[in-house]
Task: structure prediction
Amino acid sequence: MRNWALAKQSGGKFLIRIEDTDRERYVEGAVEVILSALKWLGIDHDEGPDIGGPHLPYTQSERLDIYKKHAKELVNLGKAYYCFCSRERLEEVRKKNLENKTLPRYDRHCRALDPRSAELRVKAQESHVIRLKVPESGVTTCSDVIRGDVSWENSGLDDQVLQKSDGYPTYHLGVVVDDHLMGVTHIIRGEEWLSSSPKHILLYQAFGWELPIFAHLPVIRNKDKSKMSKRKNDVSILSHRDRGYLPEAIMNFMALMGWSHPEKKEIFPVTDFVKYFSLERVTLTAPVYDIDKLNWLNGQYIRALNDKELSSRLIPFIPSDCPKNLVSQLIPLVKERLVTLKDFEELTKFFYRDIEVDHSLLHKKSNPEQVKEQLTESIKIIEKMSDSDMTAPRLEQLFRTLASAHTWKPGQFFMMLRIATTGQMATPPLFDTMAVLGRKLVLKRLQFLQ
Result:
């Protein structure tokens, strides 16, 4: 979202690139999910696998020849080398590092190989990878817009693999080559990628390319301060859509993650975020995924919709057994109580489904004899009414008069009516609810309990 806002703000281009070179983690259909989520949020892109652009292709698995060419270029420049070490040898090196309590890195066994003999072994199709020749001394510094300068001693860095034995690039080679070739100016990502920055910076330097601007955002955390995880948390964008959140509420919520509106607003349109966002205003404090805050925001956005627009947004969430001609009557009754669009069914089901009445609640603050009398008298009132009489003002007038005539406590009597006609203790206003339920259904439910 921040990348998109920065591109919009500066008149730049926002592109989508599919980084699928890690075939073990490849998920069928994931690309469609990503594009659908962005479209739902209203985050449009200028280039990508679905719309094309000047830097085709935008899927890394279709760019293998480009990466191979650049990896080979580094070998020819003496900035990278072929490594023929087997998995078994690498495991032995790792074990020795652990035993000696030294950094778990490659021992550079193949770094000193004669380049000509290494080329012959490659031509003979001997299994190999290509590694970067990391400088053995000096310091690599990332000038981060949010964090300032962060430095690493080169002596502590590994000779990272650039091209794997199957010919696929590692993430690090692929992303650096693509960012350069596609003209990416700003690298905005989570702080978990900060440790990869020296690898990327060294690659830029090895190619002789200009560095982009780096910004590492604080990682979003749970309320207990633990890191959010896709494995532990249902945090995908489309799962939020399916749970009834509005895209504008999600965008507002995400905008507030580690950033604040200069006017201290909690609710604001995405155009404000595009206008006011700056990397300098991003905090280093890890933002918290506060579901209560999201729910509050979503409720605010729901109530800001007019009834016609809300009706349209509710279409995927209206149960099949809810009469379509009833929806327009129900929306004004439940609008103030909706937290998500999915709440519609739970809040309205008693209007179109059979109910179950808890008799212990029915008799609460009263006794069976009094409740029986109240039901009998209530039935008489409804029986005398016509369908056109079943309006909220008329119902309230008649039932308040009835309660007064029998000196019934209105709180107890009206709660009894609510439970008898809906099966619920919390509903929209009682007499509005009875009016929508209609004379026939109210009468049927009261008579059933008599």
Notes: The longest strand covers residues 139-144. The CA atoms of residues 166 and 266 lie 50 Å apart.
